[in-house]
């Protein structure tokens, strides 16, 4: 198998293994989202493995993904063209898509912070400069409340990790630019930078080596965080509340982007510990091992969290970039669907997620 240089700006074509991981980003995100949906309001207890029940805040159909994956797909429609997300031409299109999502396309379940920002600008969505107005609304919300590091930017961020696979700095800049459309708190942007770089690095690395922990190694991304906050993040993951030692007790309050990201990284630690005791780990069958680990990761994400669909989505995007779409349970892949609808009025399905992820990765590689 030909291996691409992980950091080359001209990495060329992607291998089959890398393309499986590209497709895994949106697909495993959607599966994690769908696994958490029925249990998010807390009225249906989660006992044993997650079931395909639907319900949740959006009164979703069984298998229907929620706002996390919906918002991602408005990004993906733009990134599939290879657009530069640090430029307002692309950000205007994303901002316009989110406004359409709320006002026309039937969003039923919008996070409070995202709702406040979109509502402030949606009536001028068609006019030039919508991205700048959305950023200003987000900054205004931050100035008034001082608390805008909700997990709503991170939940939709996975596909941004695929936009410039050969370029760490460009990936980080894109993640921050999309986050800042709705979330002015730099910690929300930082969390997106960290997740996007994990995803980029996972896809570009050689095929899976069998150690799930390293697929969520936040410490390897921190040179991309501004110097004034690098130590804060380092100390969280090294000795702090997100240290691997705390894998059985992820922090409460996962509506906070920092804690939500920690749930994902600690799910990797949990899966690593549990997975090594499994029969599959001993079998040497890499495909079977990946399936066991994917299930452990997604199950842990929804079991251990409060905001279950969102932590499921955040964890799923990273897990997919590491283990690939082929590690997902085919029953869940066949069931996932949702907004935004195609031009013929039908829901998107797994095939659309695969195609949008692939188009994003290949278009960005050639920039
Ligand atoms: Mg949701």
From TrEMBL:
Obligatory cofactor(s): Mg(2+)
Keywords of the record: Magnesium, Metal-binding
Source organism superkingdom: Bacteria
Note accompanying the cofactor annotation: Binds 2 magnesium ions per subunit.
UniProt keyword annotation of Metal-binding present: yes
Matches recorded under InterPro entries: ADP-ribosylglycohydrolase, Ribosyl_crysJ1, Ribosyl_crysJ1_sf
Molecular function in Gene Ontology: metal ion binding
Binding site for Mg(2+): 66-68, 307, 309-310
Protein name as it appears in the record: Adp-ribosylation/crystallin j1
């Amino acid at each position: 198998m030909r291996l691409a240089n992980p950091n080359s700006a001209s990495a060329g074509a992607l291998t089959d293994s890398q393309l499986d991981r590209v497709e895994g980003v949106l697909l495993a995100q959607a599966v994690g989202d769908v696994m958490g949906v029925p249990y998010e309001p807390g009225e249906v207890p989660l006992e044993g493995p997650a079931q395909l029940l639907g319900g949740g805040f959006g009164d979703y159909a069984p298998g229907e993904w929620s706002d996390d994956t919906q918002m991602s797909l408005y990004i993906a429609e733009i990134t599939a063209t290879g657009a530069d997300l640090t430029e307002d031409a692309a950000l205007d299109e994303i901002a316009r898509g989110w406004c359409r999502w709320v006002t026309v396309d039937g969003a039923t379940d919008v996070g409070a912070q995202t709702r406040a920002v979109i509502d402030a600008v949606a009536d001028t969505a068609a006019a030039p400069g919508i991205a700048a107005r959305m950023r200003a609304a987000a900054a205004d919300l931050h100035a008034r409340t001082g608390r805008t590091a909700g997990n709503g930017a991170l939940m939709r961020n996975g596909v941004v990790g695929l936009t410039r696979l050969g370029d760490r700095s460009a990936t980080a800049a894109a993640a921050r630019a999309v986050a800042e459309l709705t979330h002015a708190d730099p910690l929300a942007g930082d969390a997106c930078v960290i997740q996007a770089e994990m995803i980029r690095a996972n896809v570009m690395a050689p095929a899976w080596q069998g150690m799930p922990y390293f697929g969520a190694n936040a410490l390897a991304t921190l040179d991309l965080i501004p110097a004034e906050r690098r130590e804060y993040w380092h100390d969280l993951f090294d000795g702090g509340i997100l240290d691997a030692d705390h894998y059985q007790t992820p922090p409460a309050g996962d509506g906070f982007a920092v804690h939500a990201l920690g749930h994902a990284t600690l799910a990797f630690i949990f899966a690593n510990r549990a997975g090594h005791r499994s029969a599959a780990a001993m079998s040497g069958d890499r495909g079977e091992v990946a399936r066991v680990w994917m299930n452990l990761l997604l199950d842990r994400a929804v079991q251990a969290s409060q905001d279950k669909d969102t932590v499921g989505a955040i964890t799923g995007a990273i897990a997919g970039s590491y283990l690939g779409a082929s590690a997902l349970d085919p029953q869940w892949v066949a069931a996932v669907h949702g907004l935004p609808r195609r031009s013929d009025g039908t829901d998107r399905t797994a095939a659309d997620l695969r195609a949008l992820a692939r188009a994003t990765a290949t278009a960005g590689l050639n920039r």
